[in-house]
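job 3f2a | input accepted
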Amino acid sequence: MAEAAPGPRIAGESGLCGQCAHAERVAGARSLFVMCGRSRWDRGFVRYPRLPVLRCRGFTQRGDARSADADSNRPLGHAPVSVQQVQAARQRLRGIAARTPLVALDVDAPAQLHLKLENLQPIGSFKIRGAANKLLQVQPDQLRDGVWTASAGNMAQGVAWCARRLGVGAIVVVPDTAPEAKLAAIRRMGAQVVMVTREEFFETFATRRHPGVKGLFVHAFSDPDVMAGNATIALEILEDLPEVRAIYVPYGGGGLSCGIASIVRVTAPDVRIIACEPETAAPLTASLHESSPQSVDFTPSFVDGAGASRLYGEMFDLARELIDEAVAVPLADVAAAIRLLAERSRVVAEGAGALAVAAAMRHPTSEPVACVISGGNINSTWLATILAGNVPSL
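job 3f2a | predicted structure (394 res):
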């Protein structure tokens, strides 16, 4: 197959491409990666789908830090965001979203675990990145009827926080299983809460509408601007831990993991992305195993910010291209991870926030890995139960 015509600058002095993109999926069998004409191929292997691929080694080492070509302005294959879009998001979010610390976790295991503490954001979760990046680009006339979203809690807080800052109204459609701690936070920010059944809630993501609700809809995960905001986390991890070999990310709708993976695939393609789900609601793990979107039994749990009963088609396509592996984690392991974080690092993580650590602890490695602690908005009763050594039940 002929390579693409030269165009992007070569980053650093290694001669490797600073930009790459999927060309196409050929007959549904193998993925082909195209780089600029001065690049070289590196044959790799991805776990899902279990097919050979040609993987671009499109990054360089400058001193101790990885850097992407500044001219990388095209998404990778189906990836919704580019390095340029994420760099713009980073500038947009200055003074709004915190650059959260990446700290080592002291564990009694041959592991180098590092925690990306998104629980320290102003709203207690990473969702402020995507919500703010989306709404700060919207024209004023698009906000005349306010904004709305569908969320189990954290994206709702992100949209409500930004709406209050912009001086517009906000409505949030939530499932009837949403924890009271998150509902109280949403109401404190001035948003109106509309509670629906779990099935109606999931349907909102597909239809992007709800009876009687108007205004600008902010999709919690399937939106390029939201994913670009989320992907700023990847830039920070790669800068703070250039030797990282894997990044564990909780998976709910896929906007966080696919946003992060979009940038990692271009700037550090040897770094593995592992998506983490609670085993009581793990459609991505099942779908990647079967190579097609699957519906699974869904049992609500204290891991309320991750997991679902099914995937959405466009997100499965992204995950299949961008994510190396998905793992389903037992609830007892998630509870143990919450205890570990509290006792060793004095970090308060919610269920979804501890998923990455729980997954990484199940497969310890001596190589450095990063775990995204996506949020810390946990019900105080659940936290007390977990710290007492038990697993909360609903």
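job 3f2a | The chain has three domains: 1-60, 102-125+223-387, 127-217.
job 3f2a | closed
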